[in-house]
Amino acid sequence: MNSNDQVLFVLNVINSILQFLSLVFLIVYVVKTWEMAAATRRSAEATERSVTEMREARDQESAPYVVVYFDIPVGSHMIYLVIKNIGKSVATNIRFTITPPLQTTIDWPIHDLAIFRDGIASMPPGYEIRTIVDGSVAYFGRDDFPLKYEATANYHGGIGSNPRQTVQILDLSARKGLMFASEKTITDVADELGDIAGETKAIRQSLEAGVRSLNTGIRISNPAISIVRLDSQFSEWGALTCAKLREIMTSWEVEFGELRDHGTGVERMQNSMAQYAGQLLILLSNAPSGLSEEVRDGLSDLSTSLVMLRRRHLYADGGTSLQQLISDGDAALVSARILLSALDSWSSPQVASNESDLAQNQPGN
Fold first, then answer.
1. Which residues, at least 6 apart from 77, have a Cβ–Cβ distance to it below 8 Å?
2. pLDDT at 155 over 90
3. In the predicted model, is pLDDT for residue 361 greater than 80?
4. Distance (Å, rounded) from C-alpha 49 to C-alpha 212?
5. Whole-number mean pLDDT of the chain?
6. 124, 150, 138, 126: which is closest to 176 by C-alpha?
7. Integer angstrom CA distances of residue 314 from 77, 178, 264
8. Can you tell me the distance from the alpha carbon of 133 to that of 136, in angstroms, rounded to the nearest whole number?
9. pTM of the model
10. Distance between CA 289 and CA 261 in Å, rounded?
11. First CA to last CA across the chain, in angstroms?
12. What is the DSSP string of 172-235?
């Protein structure tokens, strides 16, 4: 090999080495460029996710949120259906469905209400609509009524224009069987103050009437005095006692039908029965001497039964305590009927005897 061939060989080797190095550098460049592009893409995706999350967070912070739930206020026997916007902006075009359909013992078309049929046009933040569904005692007393419902609310509002939807499970089973006690609220305080104002006005009017009576002469016009100062003659006492028994029977059968149908009006009924018990005891203390022991014991037992009705409490126990209260009241009603019959049968000879005595005492006899 001459010197020219050697030089050419060396140059070829050097050229090959340079080409190989160039190829290596090119590969490294491509790899690094691909890594930079991948990093740029990941950064863009992260930025996009961050923007999306910020948009969603902003939407959640300012979006409406409509919920549907049952509410049984403390101290109340009523079940309310509540629709409320607990979000931060106005909800519009609200429509909701409840499955299965709501059940109630109240005879009224709850499913024909406008909120079910036409929906709600708009609800500002914090706004709520509530309606009575049923009395808790009456509802829990029905084994065929469901204790769980699913409520689906569809509405619009917030930053986005897409429709929104919330789904809640309305669970009444957690409330069944719980014990509760009545609590006084500011509304009760206002009612009591109103009653006090009315009673104060009545006292003032009575005092003014008393002053006028003292100036013009005393005239007894208080019907309660006729019970306390009752004549021992049976004709007057028997008529008043029979009238009182009929009043008790009418009150239980008519005025307190709301208790039987819906489990409401309990406190009013119990207060009335306690007043009747006191009036019967006053009548018993003024009973004529000829009254039979059977009637006396009957009046005493009836008064005790009415007082025990006042001490009965209702619990959310599926209607058991309500049925016991109604059963006790019905038993008292039967006792009142028996007493009324006994007084009617006993009064006839007593009245006849009184009339005979009066006839014998007439002048000329």
1. 135, 136, 137, 263, 264, 266, 314
2. yes
3. no
4. 89
5. 78
6. 138
7. 9, 11, 10
8. 9
9. 0.44
10. 43
11. 185
12. -TTTTT--------HHHHHHHHHHHHHHHHHHHHHHHHHHHHHHH------TTHHHHT--S-HH
Joined together, the tokens standing for residue 212 give 């006028």
**Other CB atoms within 10 Å distance of the CB of residue 300:** 13
Residue 223 has pLDDT above 60, yes or no: no
Q: What is the mean pLDDT of residues 346-360?
A: 48
Q: Which two tokens stand for residue 288?
A: 């004529």
Q: What is the pLDDT of residues 227-248, one digit of tens each?
A: 444 444 545 787 888 888 888 8
For residue 285, name the pLDDT band (cuts at 50, 70, 90).
Answer: confident
Over 70: is that where the pLDDT of 116 sits? yes
Sheet holding 66-71, edge to edge: 66-71, 78-85, 128-135
What is the mean predicted confidence (pLDDT) over 194-203? 81
Q: What is the mean pLDDT of residues 156-175?
A: 86
For 258-268, the pLDDT digits (tens) are 666 655 667 77
Q: How far apart are CA 234 and CA 348, in angstroms?
A: 10
| H or E segment to which residue 123 belongs | strand 120-123
pLDDT, average across residues 285-304: 84
So what's the pLDDT on residue 264? Answer: 62
Dist CA 145 CA 176 (whole Å): 12
The torsion region of residue 155 among left (phi > 0), alpha (psi -120 to 50) and beta comes to beta
How long, in residues, is the chain? 365
**How many other CB atoms sit within 10 Å of the CB of residue 30?**
10
Tokens describing residue 292: 């039979």
Alpha helix (H) ranges present in 69-185? 114-117, 136-140
pLDDT of residue 214: 54
Longest alpha-carbon distance in the chain: 188
Q: How far is CA 164 from CA 54, 57, 62, 211, 336, in A?
A: 19, 15, 13, 72, 62
The runs of H, that is alpha helices, within the chain are: 3-62, 114-117, 136-140, 186-216, 225-228, 234-250, 257-262, 266-285, 293-311, 320-360
Residue 342 to residue 61: CA distance in whole angstroms:
75
CB-CB neighbours of 213 under 10 Å: 13
